[in-house]
Design goal:
This protein is α/β, with parallel strands linked by helices. Helix content is 46%, strand content 18%. The strands form two sheets. Strands 8-7-6-9-10-11 form a six-stranded mixed β-sheet, with helices on both faces. Strands 3-2-1-4-5 form a five-stranded mixed β-sheet, with helices on both faces. Helix 9 packs across helix 10. The two termini are 30 Å apart.
Length: 345
């Protein structure tokens, strides 16, 4: 029996999943952040190793039992990043066939079973997107924030929330329900105390993306400021998807557009409806998909692809049944979005 490892390493956590060559999940592990651009290469390696070891222990196998492994990693943006990461992954598993890919590829494959071509947009702490064509050709946006022209990630949206609250306070912007929600969430009495907290507390600055659910809450209460933020985010996601669809001439096909991360499952239909309508302007047959599983499952599927193991009905059923029976933490929460979205769940 041979075993396959998939790792999804991101800005907030690292997941490792092991399956056998029949697609049956046997071990899962979780560790901390492993974007080497954020935490450094040494800490990234420790996170991969910790998540992998937990999965190995649960599967009751050793690392030399792993025939193949795919590491889908945040921070794999430019060619020089791949050189660094491939060397580290090779040292970690010297006797295993390994592949290093951007974490958007795990997100893409987590939403696709019948085909491996399509588009994905990932809105996590940051923002990234990728496309894969019919022949396997790929383009991954660098995902380096303002350096690569990006906005729209969780940190960006959190900063817009703070900006909206402060502008409502000083009179430059409209009043917003976000003011009350943010002050309550941050545990401060007023906007001046909020300024002091955000200026001096490194943890508050780092975790500013945790304000994102407040935007959905305020939107559901009819707040126009929050609604405008979600509309802006939705249009940016739709623009990224549309540009990638055009890049590989997929406008006239039922191209899958996979929306990954929990932001896309926020309360209410506005964000997903804006994205879907924007995409359908340029690709009317596009299928917007919410994955049923977390991206680490896509990393395993990508490893199976590279190994030549076909994800047929038997392997897919084994994978699904094993996750639902043994690893329900890999199932995404129930979707609460708009009416135009297809879901595998």
């Amino acid at each position: 029996m041979s075993y396959i490892l998939g790792i999804d390493g991101g800005n907030s956590k690292t997941h490792a999943l092991i399956v056998n060559n029949q697609g049956i999940p046997t071990g899962f592990g979780e560790a901390g952040a492993s974007d080497y651009q954020e935490v450094g290469i040494e800490q990234a390696c420790l996170a991969w190793k910790a998540a992998m070891q937990k999965a190995l222990d649960q599967a009751d196998i050793q690392h030399y039992d792993l025939a193949d492994a795919c590491f889908c990693l945040a921070g794999a943006d430019l060619p020089e990043d791949y050189l660094i990461l491939k060397a580290q992954v090779g040292d970690l598993l010297p006797k295993t066939h390994t592949w290093v890919k951007n974490d958007t590829i795990a997100a893409l494959r987590a939403g696709l079973y019948e085909t491996s071509f399509g588009v994905t947009v990932v809105v996590g702490t940051g923002f990234n997107a990728a496309v894969r064509g019919h022949e396997g050709q790929e383009f991954v946006m660098p995902g380096l924030g303002y350096l690569s022209g990006d906005y729209g990630g969780g940190r960006w949206l959190g900063r817009q929330v703070i900006r909206a609250v402060m502008r409502a306070w000083d009179g430059r912007g409209p009043q917003t329900i976000l003011s009350r929600l943010v002050l309550e969430h941050m545990g401060v009495k007023d906007e001046l105390e909020l300024i002091r907290l955000m200026r001096s507390d490194k943890a508050a600055q780092r975790d500013i993306h945790e304000l994102v659910p407040l935007v959905f809450e305020a939107t559901s209460l009819g707040d126009t400021v929050a609604q405008s933020l979600l509309i802006t985010l939705g249009e940016e996601v739709g623009l990224a998807a549309s540009v990638l669809i055009h890049r590989f001439c997929l406008e006239n096909e039922p191209v899958p557009v996979v929306l990954s991360t929990s932001v896309f499952r926020g309360k209410g239909p506005l964000l997903l409806d804006v994205i879907t309508r924007y995409v359908h302007r340029s690709a009317p047959q596009a299928r917007v998909i919410i994955p049923e599983f977390l991206p680490v499952v896509g990393a395993v599927i990508e490893a199976m692809d590279e190994t030549g193991i076909r994800l047929d009905n038997t392997a897919l059923n084994n994978l699904r049944r094993g996750i639902m029976d043994r690893f329900p933490a890999l199932i995404r929460p129930s979707w609460t979005g708009g009416t135009l979205i297809e879901s595998h769940a």
